[in-house]
Every structure is written in C-alpha cells, then in structure tokens.
Automatic annotation (TrEMBL):
It is an enzyme of class 4 (lyase). Keywords: Lyase, NAD. It comes from Allorhizobium borbori. This is Ornithine cyclodeaminase. Belongs to the ornithine cyclodeaminase/mu-crystallin family. Coiled coil: none annotated.
Length: 357
C-alpha cells in the first residue's frame, strides 16, 4: 500500500518543477499595484544599471525570421548568472484583422542549472521597457529642462512613451499626431487625466512645433519619411523607435547627416535602425558609453541628438529581472509545472509510466 501511495504521489510536480508564470492579467495587477509612472521610473533605473555593466553581458543581434507578413524574433542574453530571452513578433498588418502588431513573452533561467526561474507575458512589459529605455536615453541626451514632446505615431506605444518622459525627464506637454485621427483621439483620451497638457495636432509639422523631444513610432514596414530635414531645427532630441527591422525607417537620411547618433548595439542597429540608410562607416556612439561617462552625450544647446533605438536584449533582461524581484511577497503570479522532475533524474520514462491512468 505504501509503495502504491508513493507511486501516486510521484505523479505530482515537486517544487523543482514549478516556476512562476505572470499572465497578462497578473502583469496588469502588478503594474497598478506599483503605479504606472513609478514602474516606468524604476524600470528606467534598472535598465540604466545594466547599461553601466554592459561588458558582462553576452551580446548578439536578435535572431530574426522575416516573412512578407512580418518578423518573428528571439532576443537572448546572459550576465553569466542569469540567462534571459524574449520571443517577439512584429506584424504591421495585424491591426486591420484585430490582432496586436507586437506580442511577446519572456523567460529567465539560472545559468548554473539551466532551470527556468520566470516565465512572463511581455507584450505589456515590452511597451513599458521600451518607454523606459527612451526616457533613459533622453535623460542623458535631451536638452536640459525640456518640457514639450512631440509624439508622431499614436499607436500602442504612445501613452507609455509620454508617461515615461513625464515621470523621468519632466515633460509637461505632449503634442500628438498620427495619420489616423482615431489613433490620436485614443491616445488623447487615455492621457486626459495624466497631468500632461495634451494637444492633438493635424500634421507632423504642427506636432513638432516647440518640442524639445521628438519621438517617432510608426508601424509601416517600409522605408518611410516621417520627418524630413527641413522639419528638424537645432537643439532637439529625436527618439526614433519605429525603425526596427531591415527596410523600415522613419527619418530622412539628411537628418542623420546633421545629428549625433546614439545606438544600443551597432551590429544590430546598422541592419535594422535608421542608420541602415547610411554608409557602413557612419559614426555612432554606443549609449552605454554615455551612461558610464566614457563618451559625451549632449554637448551644447544647438546639437541635434538622435537615439536610433531598435530594442536590445539587455533591456528585456533588465525588465525581466525587475519583475522577478517585484513578485516577491505578492500573489501576482501562478506556479506552473513546466519542468519534468522525476524522482530519479535518470528515470524520465519511469515518471511517464507511473502517470498512466
């Protein structure tokens, strides 16, 4: 009888088999528990802390599978103790069919054992970490005491960008423009109680009037010209986050010829970012060097700075580690049985046989 009970018990997962899983519902609960702006500030600091130790990370351009419909990517990195990756897609046509353009999930694992320690949704978390990364860059590159931001492209990322710039940089007004007026109306409604002055604009020219930060975030998968050279005056910071794959850009190359450009990881950005339009020797500065004080960021009030952001795995790693820490002492996750854990590590088949009903 005792043997039968032991066999029955072995069908149930042990603690080694269980890892925390954060669903979309629980991610939303976590964000509201922390507070959206507080979380954006804390994520900004977490990402900056990892940029300061940039040299410890494994770095590789994301692994992309391109199709005529979009792209599916894996973004891996490790600091030697923890390994992390994100699965993410980009399908611009999805919105017309009622699907998200970008979806994602991510995982952390212990390097010493290879066992996962966190699995989480990352569609919301990617929006938060992208906005936090933008704010981190602006903290180092934007004009001092900037108060107005133009947001060109008012899709799923727009509100996160505006709130991050408010919480981290101190902007007081956001000027919105999108070729789809309904997108602008959506963003304006969502930001109505944010404490920001929100201005809906009819053209990109109108939106950038008086703005010290210009953020572009559009979804069309093509060489596009959202900003032309004559639209950009001296002394602004451009936060270009829409160009993130080969053949997809937002800025006229003449703007890049006038700007000092800062990037995450050049081998990836030269293929995917705005600088794919430029010669291979076009000069760029890696943002981590500015964060660590090894390179100059903004040097004068007339300089045009450009953060050519395509998103890099270290930022996702930072966000995943942040969430893992924030889960401690909460119920904003569920444990899922994702690792096979036989009583005898050599007896995987025996575990399967004992589970037969």
């Amino acid at each position: 009888m005792a043997n039968n009970q032991g066999a029955a018990m072995s069908q149930f997962p042990s603690a080694k088999a269980l890892i925390p899983f954060v669903s979309v519902e629980n991610m939303m609960r976590l964000v509201h528990h922390v507070g959206v702006e507080t979380m954006l500030v804390e994520l900004t600091d977490a990402i900056e802390a990892d940029f300061r130790r940039w040299d410890v990370f494994d770095k590789t351009p994301r692994i992309a599978s391109h199709s005529r419909d979009g792209v599916i990517e894996l973004m891996p990195t490790s600091d030697g103790e923890i390994y992390g990756f994100k699965y993410v897609n980009g399908h611009p046509k999805n919105m017309a069919a009622g699907f998200q353009t970008v979806t994602a999930f991510g995982l952390l694992a212990q390097v010493s054992t290879g066992y996962p320690v966190l699995l989480t949704e990352m569609t919301l978390l990617t929006a938060l970490r992208t906005a936090a990364t933008s704010a981190m860059a602006a903290r180092h590159l934007a004009p001092k005491k900037v108060r107005v931001m133009a947001m060109i492209g008012n899709g799923a990322q727009a509100e996160f960008q505006a709130l991050a710039m408010k919480a981290v940089v101190g902007i007081e007004e956001v000027r919105l423009y999108d070729i789809d007026p309904q997108a602008t109306a959506k963003a304006a409604a969502n930001l109505a109680d944010s404490g920001l002055i929100v201005t809906a604009c009819g053209t990109a020219h109108e939106a950038i009037r008086g703005a010290g930060i210009i953020t572009t975030c559009t979804a069309d998968k093509q060489f596009a010209t959202i900003l032309t050279d004559n639209m950009v005056g001296a002394g602004v910071h451009i936060n270009a986050i829409g160009g993130d794959c080969p053949g997809k850009t937002e800025l006229h190359k003449d703007i890049l010829a006038r700007a000092d450009t800062f990037v995450e990881y050049p081998p990836q950005t030269r293929v995917e970012g705005e600088i794919q339009q430029m010669d291979p020797d076009y000069p760029v500065t890696e943002l981590w060097r500015v964060v660590r004080g090894e390179a100059e960021g903004r040097r004068d009030q007339r300089q045009i700075t450009l953060f050519d952001s395509v998103g890099f795995a270290v930022e996702d790693f930072s966000a995943l580690r942040y969430v893992r820490e924030k889960l401690k002492g909460t119920d904003f996750y569920q444990e899922i049985d994702i690792i096979a854990d036989p009583d005898d590590p050599r007896d995987l088949f025996g575990m399967l046989r004992r589970a037969k009903v």
